[in-house]
Amino acid sequence: MSKNTEKYTSSSIKTLHFPENVRTRPTMYISFLEMPGIYHLLKEAVDNSVDEFNAGHGKEIQVIISNDNGFINVTDSGRGIPHDDEKKFYSIFNELHSG
Hints:
Low-confidence stretches: none
Mean pLDDT: 87
Order of helices and strands: HHHEEH
Helix content: 25-40%
Number of strands: 2
Number of helices: 4
C-alpha cells in the first residue's frame, strides 16, 4: 500500500458540472464502460419504448443492431420528444435527470 503524502483539505474538493461530471466519472451513471454498460443503456432505451407502448402511445418497437459498425438503433411509434418549448427540449439532451 502506497502512502499519499498530499494534504487533503477543502481545496482538494472539486465540483464538476455537466458535461465534465459525466465525462470524468461515467461509471456513476451507467456502472460499467464495457458490454454491461452498453446493455444497460440498451435496456433503458427499450424500456422507454415499452413504456410508450404499454401506455397506448405506440404500435411498433424496432431494435436494429448493425453488423457493420455495432450501432444499436431503437425506434418506436410513440409520442416522441415534445418540442413546443425550445428550452425544455434542449434540457432533455443536455441536463441530467430531465424528462
